[in-house]
Each structure stands twice: as C-alpha cells, then as structure tokens.
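Continuing the series of single-chain predictions for the mutant panel. This is the parent chain; the variants come on the following pages.
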Amino acid sequence: MEAIVIFFVLFIYIWVRVKLGHHETTDMIEKKMYKKGIDLIEAKQYQKAKEFFDIKIKENPTSAVTYMCRASCHYGLGNVYQSIFDAEKSITFQNTLPENYLLLGSAYFGLKDYQMAVEEYEKAVWFSREQNIEALKFRGLCYYYLGNFEKAKYSFQRALKKGDEESNFYLLKIERNEKFVI
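Parent structure:
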C-alpha cells in the first residue's frame, strides 16, 4: 500500500513539473524565444537573421543560443572566421550544444583543416548521441582525408544505419580503394 502511495505522489510531482515547464533546459527556452530569428536562418535570410541576433546579443550577452545562431548567419554569409569566433564564444557559455560543434566542423572542413574539423565533428557526434547524420558523415569524410579508413568506414556505417544514402557511396569507394573528392 505504501508503495502505491509513494508512486502516486511521485507521479503527481513529475506531472506538475512537466506542466509547469520545469523539464525544459535553458537552450530549449531560448530557442523558443528566438524562433523568429531561427526561422530567418532556415529561410536562408542570413543578413536579416544576423541583424536580429545582433540585437538579441546586446539584450542578453551571455546567451549561448544567440551566439550560435549568429555564427550560423555568418557562416551562411561566407564570413567563416567570424562564424568560428561566434561559435567559440557560444561554447564558453554552454559547451553541450551539438549545433555549435557541427558548425565549427563545417567551417574547418571548408577551410580544408580536416584535423580540426574531425575534432569538432567528434564533439557534435558525442553531444547529439550519434543521432546527427551530418556529423557522422562529415566525421567520416574527415577521417578519410586524414587517411584513417577504418574510422571513416565506421562513421559512414553509422550514418547509413541512420538513413543517409550518401554514406553508402563513400563506403563503396573505400571498399574499392578509390579516391573521391568533395
């Protein structure tokens, strides 16, 4: 009987916390607050989104999400080094956002610094719990370009299991010992 009462009280406690929104993390709340700017990024209106996040950074200078979003804007506008700066700044406020590491990996990959890129993609894979297909695939590409074909193959296999058909192409190339370029 006591176990049922304890279970019932625990259930009510958890239900109340969920209804009050106590299960949401700071970045989840901020992403809702900045939805307008995030929608602009998704619509590839990077200049408008950058202006939006410039204002939000002045309002909240310690928000990891605002710096991360502005980094995405800079990356979309072709300002790779400013993108790296903002993503690194975001990490100083919160170092568990996989989007930051994915963005940093993409920036370094574009600069053909595969060692730095693979380090960032490793973090993106870790913090996304191996759920981000792009991080898995590009980690594989970095390992391929660094000459570590076993790790590349492993990353492509993980991405393929998540549904990325492009990774199958890369796996076939590795098996045939063929070179591929981006």
